[in-house]
Amino acid sequence: MPNRLAHSTSPYLLQHAENPVDWWQWEPAAFEEARRRNVPVFLSVGYSSCHWCHVLAHESFEDEETAALMNEHFVSVKVDREERPDVDAVYMEAVQAATGQGGWPMSVFMTPDGEPFYFGTYFPPEPRHGMPSFRQVLEGVQTAWTSRREEVGEVAEKITRDLAGRQLDYGTTGLPGDAELAQALLGLTREYDPATGWFGGGNAKFPPSMVVEFLLRHHARTESAGAREIAEGLCRAMACSSLFDQVGGGFHRYVLSQERNGPLVPHFEKMLYDNALLCRTYAHLWRVTGSDLARRVALETADFMVRELRTAEGGFASALDADSADRSGRHVEGAFYVWTLDQLKDVLGDEDGQRAAEHFGVTQEGTFEEGASVLRLPDGEAPAGIKERLLAARAERARPGRDDKVVAAWNGLAIAALAETGAYFDRPDLIERATEAADLLVRMHIDFSAGGARLARTSKDGQVGAHAGVLEDYADVAEGFLALAAVSGEGVWLEFAGFLLDIVLEQFTGEGGALYDTAHDAEQLIRRPQDPTDSATPSGWTAAAGALLSYAAHTGSEAHRTAAEGALGVVKALGPRAPRFIGWGLAVAEALLDGPREVAVVGPQSDAGTRELLRTALLAPAPGAVVAVGETGSEEFPLLADRPLVDGRPAAYVCRNFTCDAPTTDAAELARKLAN
Q: What is the pTM of this model?
């Protein structure tokens, strides 16, 4: 019989709906049940495309005896970290503090008051490699709960007190300036390995999207050749490695080297957020360099998102699984993406197959598992027609599962990426897909009846999820709307961004410029989550700073500008010390130091002169520049107020803080103004 998870909108929770475990969702009733029964709560956190989450579920949660032990002695709560990033963040902080490491699946045992006392991640079904089995853990926790309750309570109380007492240390005050940004670049230079094109240290290599954006903006503002070289090197290394799907486009989650100097092997899940960020990164790299590789990767990544992640409602799904069925029907990691030499020859013929193997690094022995190889492209280009034939053949394979959950924040990132990529490369279809996703968020995720524009975190199959948006949702959706406003000339997207950023000011701000990840009126956990550092995506804190700064440039709002500047104080403290972990904050700081510039393009959008000026403005690499286009005096864009045509012709005004240079009707002159 299905358990309580059968009514969830989370694909991850639905994957556990048939478990014999009597799962609860995260809700007050679960903790009331634990109090009534006087048992501890077992919290299991994961996400749908997590390989080891699937392994733990198959080995333990689907096992009748293990489930019976869980049901008798615990109230078991299952959480999708993508639906409840606040719950995940708070308890992951506890796991990392207690064990020195973290990851998913996350396993936490806590009191009925939510106070944690024992932690872990994956536990095997039997003792292995020094790890206890999951059943041993359950039995040990149950014994401690019944025989040493006072000691357990003291441990839980101390952990909770320590977590609640943690305060973010700015280390300094004030805004980041040239000195801090130069020091951040120096730190990145020291960590960058030009021989490999990656940052050194660590076996796993994750895509540093936000850092590349900082490097491109720093180069645009200062003409630093070193910043550009690192950005180009990182992007070439990612695009030519197995991190990039060389057949179908789009990026995997990360790559790792299984042996020293050996080939990099991906963790094959594909996340919307990675692909949205990297699509925009490569589009911005092309804007600076004109690189054919950057153009191809940006477009192939955009096409992948539209082809494989777009939902029936017009939004974008969260992820594709790493695992899928191989030829024998076994679910294994990477089966959809890897190739043997014989498989290449079966599809392409002996001659083209051998040629493709040489280009993609496919060997007879294999570079992955069981004689198969991951595809990489060291030369950057495949022979004509090869990729299309392989993609058609791959379409016949069993596909990885898809998490159809629409996450507001990640759709905001996708909207920005698709809108700009469509504008740069004359792909109006991509702008249409961005607009449709934005329409979905307004129609389904934003509630205008709840006192302002309150945002729901997720939806699925046209049904809105129950969980409130967090700071990154408001910030990233606002960022997407602002990008769409610039590209489309539709001021309604600026207005919607303003609604969301007003909620940021009202609900997420603290003292001294600090921002919190949850709203003032959100559910109170044992600690209110707050983190300015990037992970796989820009932190809500720095994403909000960027959107607030852009909105202030559009509207002249002092409140939004002040909030943006207050939020950037942390970048002054962390940027020089840990630049790889606050890349988006550094990128926003570059925009602040450059103004950001405000570009008002005045004229009917049907006029070729207006369109040429708009394209020139959009292609300018000036850090964080905001662009408004429309008729003179348009009320949709404050930047267009009192900006007349020049001799009856479309004109562009370049401004800082609403102080403008003389207008120009010449696109080449506009480009020079924005390049200065």
A: 0.96
